[in-house]
Amino acid sequence: MLNTFLIAIREGLEASLIVGILLAYVAKTGRRKALPSIWTGVFLAIALSLGFGAFLSFTSHELSHSGEEVFAGVTSIGAVTLVTWMVFWMKKTARNISKELHSKMDQAVALGTFGLISTAFLSVAREGLETSLFLYASFKTVGSNAGPTIGLLAGLATSVTLGILVYKRSVRLNLNKFFTYSGIALIIVASSVLHKGLLDFQSFGLIPAGAWINWTLVIAYLFFTLKPFTFALRTGALKTPVSK
C-alpha cells in the first residue's frame, strides 16, 4: 500500500504541477483561448497512460508462466531504469522547470492548436507512461490484494488536491525539497522492484541463482543512487524558491 501511495503522490503531483504551470502561464499572458487545447492534450496523455497500463496487464495475463516471468523481469528492470533516470532528471531540472515549460508554451502558441495540444500531451504523457510502467511493476512486487489499490487511489487523490492548492497559491511548495525527499522514497521503492525483477530472471535462468547476487546488486543500486541525495541533504543544498 505504501509503495503505490508513494508512487502515485510523487508522479501524480509532478503531472499536476506541470499542468498547473501551463494553465497559469497561458492565463497570466492573456492566452485563455489556449486552455481547451491544453486540456485536450492532458486528457489524451491520460488516455494513453491508462491504455499502456491495460496493455501491460493484458499482455502479462496472456503469456505462459515462463513467459510471464521474463515479461515481469523485463518490465521491472525497465521501470527501475526509467524511474531512476527521471528522479535524477527532475532533481536537476526542478529549479528551472517553470521557465522550461514557459519557453515550450511560447513556441507552441506560435504553432497554433496542434502545437498547444502536442506540448501539453508530451509534458504529461512522459509522467503518465512512467507511472503506468512503475505501478505495474510495483503491483507485481507487492501482490494483488486491495492494499496497493487503496494506496494508489489515495496517492492520486492527494496529489491532485495538492496540485490544485499549489495552483491556487493556497499552498507554497519548495519543489527542490519535495523532489529530493520523494526521490529518495521512490529509489527505495525501486530497489524492491529491482529485487523482484532479478528474482524473475533467476527463476527463468537468465542470471545465476543466489540470494547474495540479488542483494549485492540491490545494495549497490541503493548506494550509488542515494549518494547524491544524501550529499545534498548534508550540505543543505535545498534552499530553492518555492513553486510559483
Question: If you average the pLDDT, what whole number results?
Answer: 81
How many domains in all?
1
- Rg result: 19 Å
Shape: globular
What gap, in angstroms, lies between the N and C termini? 31 Å
Low-pLDDT segments, ≥5 res = none
Residue share in β-strands: under 5%
Number of helices: 8
What profile does the largest beta sheet have? none
Tell me the total number of β-strands: 0
Task: State the share of residues found in helices, binned by percent.
Answer: over 70%
Describe the 3D structure.
This protein is an all-alpha fold. The chain has one domain (2-235). The protein is built from eight helices and no strands. The chain has helices at 2-28, 35-62, 65-93, 97-111, 113-142, 146-167, 175-204, 211-235. The two termini are 31 Å apart. The relative contact order is 0.18.
Features:
244 residues; 8 helices
What is this structure's SSE topology?
Layout: H1 2-28, H2 35-62, H3 65-93, H4 97-111, H5 113-142, H6 146-167, H7 175-204, H8 211-235
Helix pairs in contact: 1-4, 1-5, 1-6, 1-7, 2-5, 3-5, 3-7, 4-5, 5-7, 7-8
Please outline what is shown here.
With 244 residues, the protein is an all-alpha fold. It contains eight helices and no strands.
